[in-house]
Specification:
single chain; Alkaline Phosphatase, subunit A; 8-stranded mixed sheet; 13 helices
Length: about 425
């Protein structure tokens, strides 16, 4: 899930296919549909809160163009991770916003990545050819929100090294004054090194260090990360009581995960322009229905809490929200595992806020939700819509790659005419 705010202000849930009620049981599954506030549109019975505010969302049922990759990078950029790989790869949208709208003097980073689980391990949010100066700030939220990792992913994460997360605290005995002195010393040394640095890494480190100093000394970002400083009534609005009867899969999150979106809202208020959040684990190759009985209510509550909170604060039109995943799930249930597998053919997305024309459904699939019948929407169409909401002109905005060539932010896609 990504929240993007305009310059004046600031892992997505993997999508699950919902077949039509008329489909046979081996496709439809055991969940029942319920009506929503959008006339004639039904969603899963496990999402009643979302149904009650469906008029504040746009539901895309015909998302196409999935690269089929399990790293969620496409949900950050609109591109496959192999695109422009020879020059470092495409940058995530948050990194682009940091380049276009950010400054090293900002009291909060432009791009904050709160992803856990597979999106964290696979480094879904990357700066690409923009280089390390525009990498996301990635605070360690593991003490705030539990998301157990598979053993294989623990090894993957460990192999990435200690710098995979961003430390946002001062070490013992290092005061703000000493930090500024050390920064000036580093800057002096770095000026010499930059003369022989052909890749610009030292310049990138200079920018990142300058911003880190500002963030650490202002306290604004640290305050935003501290949920104890939020109004208890608002915390309660996001809180969800544990469902002790629900089956929780080994890598699924618990009810505390709903407060990730409260954290995201506080970061946007602090000046962050793009926040990425993940909810896990929707990779339901087995036991699809028991797992979704625990997971879907979390998403239902979290999205309802965020949208109603932003609306009450008068912020909803200024913040664009997209919730989606790398691909859909197989229409037909695996009779051996009770699961649904990867299905790049068609997926779904939910959009809200950003001044968009919401309260509508875009696209249509066939009877078993396996292919698109009308209005296919590409990942880059969604990104084009987000850039439009942020006031960025795709026709005239380019980024210079390491070879000196201008690169447009997208190579296809237009803002969704239904929404803008």
């Amino acid at each position: 899930m990504t929240l993007a705010a305009p310059a004046a202000a600031p892992r997505q849930p993997s999508s699950t296919q919902v077949a039509t009620p008329a489909a046979p049981i081996e496709i439809r599954g055991e969940f029942k549909p319920i009506p929503t506030k959008v006339a004639g549109f039904h969603i899963c019975e496990l999402m009643p809160k979302l149904a009650s505010i469906a008029d504040k969302f746009a539901f895309i049922r015909s998302l196409v163009g999935s690269a089929g990759a399990h790293n969620a990078f496409q949900c950050q950029s609109g591109f496959a991770d192999t695109d422009l790989a020879s020059v470092g790869g495409r940058p995530a949208m948050g990194s682009i916003l940091a380049k276009l709208r950010g400054s090293s003097a900002d009291p909060a980073p432009s791009f904050v990545d709160l992803m856990q689980g597979r999106p964290l391990v696979r480094d879904s949010a990357r700066p690409g050819f923009l280089g390390p100066a525009y990498q996301p700030f990635r605070p360690d939220i593991s003490q705030m929100f539990s998301r157990p990792l598979e053993e294989g992913m623990k090894r993957e994460l460990s192999a990435r090294g200690e710098e995979h997360r961003t430390s946002l605290t001062l070490i013992d005995a290092l005061t703000a004054d000493r930090l500024h002195d050390r920064t000036r010393l580093l800057a002096g040394l770095d000026r010499i090194k930059r003369e022989v640095d052909a890749n610009g890494i030292m310049d990138a480190m200079d920018r990142f260090t300058q911003q880190a100093v500002g963030i650490l000394t202002s306290g604004r970002f640290a305050d935003a990360m501290d949920l104890s400083k939020e109004d208890p009534r608002v915390v309660e609005h996001y809180a969800l009581a544990p469902n002790k009867a629900a089956f929780r899969f080994a890598t699924a999150e618990d009810e505390s995960s709903t407060k990730k979106l409260l954290l995201a809202r506080r970061l946007v208020e602090a000046g962050v322009r793009c926040v990425s959040v993940s909810f896990s684990d929707f990779d339901t190759h087995s036991e699809n229905f028991p797992r979704l009985r625990q997971l879907l209510p979390l998403i239902d509550h979290a999205l309802h809490a965020l949208v109603t909170d932003l609306d009450e604060r008068g912020m909803l039109d200024d913040v664009s929200i997209v919730a989606w995943g790398e691909f859909g799930r197989t229409p037909r249930i695996d009779t051996k595992t009770g699961g649904r597998h990867h299905w790049p053919g068609v997926g779904l997305a939910l959009l809200a806020g950003g001044g968009m024309n919401v309260g509508q459904v875009i696209g249509e699939t066939n009877r078993d939700a396996g292919s698109v019948l009308s209005r296919p929407v590409h990942y880059q169409d969604v990104f084009a819509t987000l850039y439009h909401n942020l006031g960025i002109d795709l026709a005239s905005t380019t980024l210079i790659d390491p070879n000196g060539r201008p690169q447009y932010l997208l190579d296809r896609g237009k803002p969704l005419r239904e929404l803008v």
